């Protein structure tokens, strides 16, 4: 199967990191195309970044459909453009936050989220409510590490995330940690070994969920709100993305 992995920010090195994490768990028959939009923010750290990221996701899902992608993963913890992408796609579209929340709920009665800047916690809070996990998510914690700092060895990101996770487990009385950024995917295994609890990276969970759904013949429902967008001429810079 062809799985199109969309990093909604425009940082190629992060796309490569996310792609490597996905390929490490992908089944032998799964080809991972790791891509990013041709426009938008280098990192997604707030509502304004999120708007442009959603448009970039739509651009890349449209391209994936033209290439015959069997599934898409949106590899950003805000799941930007998820519902629009599901209108465009035939196959499953999995957001890494939604995937991580489901996985965490299967291995612990309560989980904590450790993410990047404190200001992005509200986006995760909105998703917890939107997806119906209020009773399972015990806390959302920012480390005040900027997304692109994750790649900088001088940021000491791993130690700061570990410290935040240890405090979250104690304060929230939770049993699992959800990593709140696709750029943390490469830290998952080592953090789990240190913490001794399940640590969930949404990128790898989303890849396996997409594979499972495709293997079961389950694509996005086209009845109701995920039906294809209504044909209409968009204006201005959106014109090339007109549906229909
Ligand atoms: C992400 N931003 O996974 C989110 C993390 C965040 O550019 N990729 C980004 O801070 O919301």
What does this protein structure show overall?
- The chain is of the alpha/beta class.
- It has eight helices and eight strands, in the order βαβαβαβαβαβαβαβα.
- The longest helix is centred in the first third of the chain and has 20 residues, at 47-66.
- [(4R)-2,5-dioxoimidazolidin-4-yl]acetic acid binds next to loops.
- The site of [(4R)-2,5-dioxoimidazolidin-4-yl]acetic acid has 15 residues, from loops.
Question: Main attributes?
Answer:
244 residues, alpha/beta, 4-stranded parallel beta sheet, 42% helix, binds [(4R)-2,5-dioxoimidazolidin-4-yl]acetic acid
Chain-averaged pLDDT? 97
Q: Characterize the main sheet.
A: 4 strands, parallel
State the helical fraction: 40-55%
- The best one-word shape is globular
Please write out the topology.
Layout lengths: L1 E5 L5 H14 L5 E5 L11 H20 L4 E4 L7 H7 L4 E3 H12 L3 E5 L5 H11 L5 E6 L14 H16 L3 E4 L8 H8 L3 E3 H14 L29
Parallel strand pairs: 1-2, 1-3, 3-4, 5-6, 5-7, 7-8
Helix pairs in contact: 1-8, 2-3, 4-8
Bound molecules: [(4R)-2,5-dioxoimidazolidin-4-yl]acetic acid (5HY).
What's this entry about, in short?
By secondary structure, this protein is of the alpha/beta class. It contains eight helices and eight strands, in the order βαβαβαβαβαβαβαβα.
